[in-house]
Amino acid sequence: MTGGARDRRVNRAIEERRDRVNEAIDDELPVEPPERLYEAARYLLEAGGKRLRPAMLLMAGEAIADVPPGSTDYRSFPDRQGGSVDLMVAAVSVEIVHLFTLIHDDIMDEDDLRRGVPAVHRAYDTKTAILAGDTLYSKAFEVMLRTGAPDDRSVRALDSLARTCTEICEGQAMDIGFEEGDAVGVSEYLSMIERKTAVLYGAAAALPAVLLGTDESVRRALYQYGVDVGRGFQIQDDVLDLVMSSDAIGKRRGSDLIEGKQTLITVHAREAGVDVDGLVEGAAEAVSDADIEAAVATLDEAGSIDYARETAREFVESGKAELEVLPDNDAKDLLADVADYLIERDH
Amino acid sequence: MTGGARDRRVNRAIEERRDRVNEAIDDELPVEPPERLYEAARYLLEAGGKRLRPAMLLMAGEAIADVPPGSTDYRSFPDRQGGSVDLMVAAVSVEIVHLFTLIHDDIMDEDDLRRGVPAVHRAYDTKTAILAGDTLYSKAFEVMLRTGAPDDRSVRALDSLARTCTEICEGQAMDIGFEEGDAVGVSEYLSMIERKTAVLYGAAAALPAVLLGTDESVRRALYQYGVDVGRGFQIQDDVLDLVMSSDAIGKRRGSDLIEGKQTLITVHAREAGVDVDGLVEGAAEAVSDADIEAAVATLDEAGSIDYARETAREFVESGKAELEVLPDNDAKDLLADVADYLIERDH
Asked: Model pTM?
């Protein structure tokens, strides 16, 4: 399939699942008293988002169950033992975790905008944003308890969810440490993004294996698929920040450089002898587009951008290779295409 | 037993459990990389705390199992079916939830001191404090998964934990709403403290019933015991803020009045026609001890302090009555004494 046709297919598959996930979020996370709290918790949902993690979870379920993509009710999804589970609530739970991390990360990073609207701590206030995130946190566990799966699988799903949340916090702590000037090597950087970003993709891909009762080998392979794809996705995000126009990425080109954020590109460049801290200096307002252009050229000459692209590609290929454990079917192909899509997307 | 002898007995019972809980926290929540994160998460533990909730949980387990208090290894505690569970990790999990709420509440309430030391967001910084709380949050779930109880009981324990955390957030949101001037009646105030404070006592008392596999009637009664005692405890806290010396309570007498915080006393006084907002005016520095003395006298004349004391007493009596479902034993007596102790304590 050509890249264009593949991208349209993947886009459509993600969008179809997104619409159903959004409906399910409304069911599982209604606005209840105290309303202001739940409105703040739900605020970013209204602002958009692709629901990539839930989509990956639902596709992984379809690949395991060997059913045609989109053919089967996610709320009553066939497991391997002739029973059924509500796979959709697991998808919602994972999205709720993601949402909680966005809200708290925006407070910690002092980011004013998210998805083109004010961050929750700006639209409301910091205490409401802290509390909205905290509420989503326990709601994710409450929702994950609604799958109707046998208790042994529920216990394993909750264990996965709890460990994933802990790792996300650890990753965010490492990222904060990096920003505060800790020396960072490639392996440390990769370890940070694994925790901060990739493990939630790993959990999303692996949870259907837990909930549908597959062999451990399938669960492990899907987890690794998700982690690898998640790492590729994050690295590609770092690349896009440098190579795309401000319009295309919805924030200023080179904003990572302006904010002094570590990325795989700057970590590589520093190891290659580039004076990364001197690339872009001064306040955001004082940095011109030409400054950014020159900085990107320097990183490009050092081979750092290509290095990041190649690393993202390697992770995605490695993730796709994990899919071998699955039966051959359209959902499996879709998971492979999603992996490619995530590092070839241009926004 | 006289009040003095009873208080010594209760104190000793709480302290014995506290020491074992502290050891278990060290085991279950070690400092791991990234160290600064886990140090921040553990920081308040070093500053003290009575570990009241874990103590109540352990005592409830002893009462259910009908074993002499302190006689039985909490790590391998007999259940009702001839098996054993680790009751101590459940106690640790509940304390971790409490710790997480302290850290985030101090950020939200902009409190600089906790347990006589700087709050985590002062000792470290706000982003580390947010993240330390978030890490404790998922750790509480991870730890609760280590009881070794059969999966059906683990699922119910996690469900209880998740619902409790959601309710605590709802209570805190209501409390923030009250501070921002929402009109508050007695029933709303009681509903707030039920969520913010009492449900965690309810969970602590009820979790052994879930984990040891008792009848639902026992679980429900112990939950209600914990909730009632927790409400009494919170109301007594509000009373102590007014009637004790600054030295005895470790913060300035009348600080709730100075901060404009709603308590059962001010809610009652307002309904009795007292101009509560005019009782203490101006910045904390401008308020004299005589101002506080006069405000307390006004609240006393309105009958509001007696009303709060009586309400706390009623909750505690109602909570103690729930203990009827338990076999007669020393641990049951201890639970009754703890209830009295919590509203008769003078600090």
From this structure: 0.96
**Structural domain span for residue B239:** 3-344
> Dihedral, CA atoms, A177, A178, A182, A187, nearest 10 degrees?
120
- pLDDT, residue A298, reads 96
Query: How many domains would you assign to chain A?
Result: 1
Torsion angle (degrees, nearest 10) of CA B266, B268, B273, B275: 0
pLDDT confidence bin for B182, thresholds 50/70/90: low
Helices marked H in chain B? 3-28, 35-46, 52-65, 87-108, 120-123, 126-144, 151-179, 186-193, 199-212, 216-243, 246-249, 255-258, 264-271, 289-301, 304-322, 330-344
Cβ-nearest to A134 among B128, B142, B169? B169
| Res A180: pLDDT | 78
Q: What's residue A137's pLDDT?
A: 97
Calculate the average pLDDT of chain A: 94
Query: What CATH code is carried by the domain that includes residue B176?
Result: 1.10.600.10
CA B195/CA B88 separation, integer angstroms: 24
- Residues in A lying within 8 Å of B, measured between beta carbons: 33-34, 36-37, 104, 107-108, 126-128, 130-131, 133-135, 137-139, 141-142, 145, 150-152, 154-155, 158-159, 161-166, 169-170, 172-174, 176-177
The structure tokens 């037993």 sit at: B1
State residue B168's pLDDT score. 98
Report the residue from B128, B152, B165 with minimal CB separation from A151: B152
